[in-house]
Every structure is written in structure tokens, then in C-alpha cells.
Amino acid sequence: MAKVIMVQGTTSNAGKSLITAALCRIFKQDGYRTAPFKSQNMALNSFITKEGLEMGRAQVMQAEAAGIDADVRMNPILLKPTGEKGSQVILNGEVLRDMTAQEYYTCKNELVPHILKSFNSLTDEYDIIVIEGAGSPAEINLKQQDIVNMGMAKMVDAPVIIVGDIDRGGVFASLAGTMLLFDEEEKSRVKGFVINKFRGDVEILKPGLDMLRDITNVDVLGVVPYLNVDIDDEDSLSEKLVSNETYNIIDIAVIRLPRISNFTDFNVFSMIKGVSLRYVKNLRELGNPDMIIIPGTKNTIEDLKWLRQSGLESKIIRHVSEGKAVFGVCGGYQMLGEMINDPDNVEAGGSIKGLGLLKNITTFYKQKTRTQVSGKINEINGFYHELSGIDVTGYEIHMGDTEILEGDFLNTIDVSAGESNNKYDGCVCDNVAGSYIHGIFDNSDVVNSVVNILLKQKGMSVDELEKFDIKSYKESQYDLLADSVRKSLDMGKIYNALGTVSLTSRSED
């Protein structure tokens, strides 16, 4: 059976996901087969496994850090918010149903067997499981039905590390306050604190660390600096979604739709030296970029209405008329077409005109498409010609089918569940392109070609920027994360909490 450790945080965005990923990488480096786990995730950023099952992207990122393939067992419950008080509930990778918060709260206990089945099967295959909590573990009004923080720790008898974010202030109060709200059994599980996102001189902080230990009787395992690592962040509070005024040689603007999903699709552009990636939500922030991307959304029709009301639609159309690039992914691809029909009331019902920049029509159906895909981009004429013949992989997750009336096609093969079906996953009309493929820009040849196209459009040489290898870059960032966290934490105490030692240390002995 695997050893287990759990990472909880005093708040959302305290850094639980990154600390979990760092530990997964460190344990892998130390010779252990390691897997991440999160019983319940709430996010609009999701991933489709090779079996066609849906899970949160944070555990995909953590699995990458651990050097393993993503598995839906690592995230048995995914909540995708549909409004202020409800979510689509994904159980074991498949849609269960839409629920209000109250409905979900009352049925949580029924989901425990599914959580334990997934977790226990992972413990048979790995040496260490690193569990991530959600939000704060000290929500006393929710404690009775908790299945993701201390409730999960109790189910699997996990020792716990609590992460606090010092960058936002109040870290000592939040850590001490969290302990105050735990019962005695919960307090006994806490093996240490991690103070995260620190900027400054640690020596000045040390007296506070000593006082915190005296107050809580819990050791501080380390102080992690504010890390400049480039790793996917699925949280809606992600700093990546904050508009900035940075402009590089190539300027790419992503429309920050109100219900934006899978914004990690575009992170690769921010990794390339000389390319700026900005998320914008109004005309002032948009400016005059080289390329506009319309991302995926949980509600295409409502976000299309917002795009229209905000004035961004007319600006995008003008941008196209000036010969500049536009690319839509998933819901953004649907918006670029001529019409969206919703006869089954999957979203708002009825029909709505699209931007009319691609010659296609989308119709929503109740069944969700979930599949990994691979294939080759067909011959493309004009603006995006350089993409012709490139091999692509990625995944689809959407409601609706799109009939392409005119344009160059993006041809892929459905590889879900062992099937191989030729189909069209997008189309191109001159300088406007769209695709259902999430992760299309994670193909190095695709992203390098897009950057080259934008350079040529500006009359610049393709030699202005280096070729980019996303896989090598990601590996280097995971190693950087692990090295920084290893230097900051007392890994001996973490291994003691696990009840084991580093294989590296053991071999040296």
C-alpha cells in the first residue's frame, strides 16, 4: 500500500496545487512511483483522458510533474460551475447531472464509495500518493459533510501539511486561526506548516516562525519564496488572467469571457521569449494586438451576447478586416461561425447569429463530446498556409456539432476508446481559424508556425525568435519548481511524516 501525505491550504490560491506538484516531482526524483489525488475539484479547466473521461487540469499538471499519464482516478469528482449556485457534477469522468449547491451538499455521502474506490486502486499501483485539499479546511459550516479536506484525511488516515500565502498578508493569523477551528483529532494530523510566496529576507521572518510554533505547537517546515515558474494554473484566481500592459515583439490578446474555460490552452505563448500573452475584458485593454484568441466557455450563447454588448465583437471584425489573425477554440470557434442553434435548450435555447467570420453552423445537442484526438492539418491556403501538414494531438470537450459550409478543414482522427474515425475538428477562412481541439497550441510545430506567421505579417524575420520545444520547457520548469521547494522545505520531516525515507538518502547510507 502506498504512503500518503496531504497538502491543505488556509485559502484558495494559497499554492496547494504547486506545492503538491513540487512534492510529486521531488518524490519522483528520489525514486518513488508517485501519483497526485484530489477527491473533489471545482474548475472550468478540464482535460479528457485517453479513455474519453473528464478530469481537472490541476491533477493533469501534477501527473506530468510525477512523470506519469493523467488518470481520472486522480480526480473522481469534478464540479463545473454553471452559475452562482449550481454546477455540472462530473463523477468518474462522466456527467452525473447538474445540481444546486444544496443538492450537492446533501448527496456528498453517497459519493464517498466512489472516492475511496479511486483512491484505493491508486494505492495498489504507486509508492506515494500526494493528496491536494480544496479551498480552506476550516469552513466549520461545511465540516460535517467534508470529503475533500480533513474529511478526506480521516478517510485514508493521511498526515497533513498546511500551506499559507504570505504574499496577501495575514499568514500567521490564517495558520493559527485554522488550527483553532480544528478539533483535537484534526490537529493531531497536522505535521507542519509551509509559508508560501515569500518575498524578502527570511531572517526578519524567523521570530514570527518561532512564535507561531509556540502558539500552535506545529513546526514550520519551510518558507517557499515567490517562485517565477511557468506551470499551468487552473484556478479562477490565477494571476495569468489579470490584464497587464506588457507588449513584446508579438502581442497576443485572449478575450477573457465571463465564463472562460480551459484558459491554460494558451499558456504556451507566454513561455516563448518575445511573445506577450494578455487576457483582456474590454476595448481599452484590448488595444491593437497582432492576434486575438477567443477561448472556450461554459456557456457559448451567453458569452457571445456579452461579446456583442461589450463592443468587442465589432472590434474583432475590424481586426479581421485589417488582415490580422483571429483564432477561436471550442466555444470561441462556435462563436466565429454564422449561426448557433440550441433546439434542446442545452444552454439558453433558440438561435443566435455568430460573428460570421467562418462559414459554419453549430447546433447544440444534449450529449457531450469527450475524446482525445490526433491527426494532420489539411492543406491550408492563404494566411495560415504554414500550418499545412502539421501533426496535431489534443482533446475535445464540448456540446454541439459544427457543420462546415466552406473553408479549409482541420482534419483529425478520434482516438477515444480505441476508435478511429476521420472527422473535421475546425476550419480556416483566410486570417480566421477555429478548432474544437483543446491543446492544439501545445503541439510545438503548431505554436512555432503561428509565431512565424505573425512575425512575417509584421515584416520581421522568423529568426527573430528561437524555435520552442514545449515538452522540454515544461520538464525544465517542473525541475526548477522541485529544486526550489526542496531547498526551502525540511524534506527529512516530510519523509518522517510519510513514515519513510528518501531512496536517495537510503542508497547513500
Automatic annotation (TrEMBL):
GO molecular function terms attached to this record: adenosylcobyric acid synthase (glutamine-hydrolyzing) activity
Instruction: Identify the InterPro entries for this entry.
Output: Class_I_gatase-like (IPR029062), CobQ/CobB/MinD/ParA_Nub-bd_dom (IPR002586), CobQ_GATase1 (IPR033949), CobQ_N (IPR047045), CobQ_synth (IPR004459), GATase_3 (IPR011698), P-loop_NTPase (IPR027417)
The UniProt keyword set, sorted, is: Cobalamin biosynthesis, Glutamine amidotransferase, Ligase
Record-annotated CobB/CobQ-like glutamine amidotransferase domain positions: 251-445
Q: Which Gene3D superfamilies does the record associate with it?
A: 3.40.50.880, P-loop containing nucleotide triphosphate hydrolases
CDD domains from the xrefs? CobQ_N (cd05389), GATase1_CobQ (cd01750)
* Domain CobQ/CobB/MinD/ParA nucleotide binding: residue ranges: 5-227
Which sites are catalytic?
A: C330, H438
Q: Under which pathway is this protein filed? A: Cofactor biosynthesis; adenosylcobalamin biosynthesis
Q: Name one Pfam family in it.
A: CbiA
The organism's place on the tree of life at top rank: Bacteria
NCBIfam families this protein is in?
Answer: cobQ (TIGR00313), PRK00784.1 (NF001989)
| HAMAP family named in the record | CobQ
Q: What is the role of the protein in this entry? A: Catalyzes amidations at positions B, D, E, and G on adenosylcobyrinic A,C-diamide. NH(2) groups are provided by glutamine, and one molecule of ATP is hydrogenolyzed for each amidation.
By sequence similarity, the record places it as follows: Belongs to the CobB/CobQ family. CobQ subfamily.
Q: What is this protein called?
A: Cobyric acid synthase
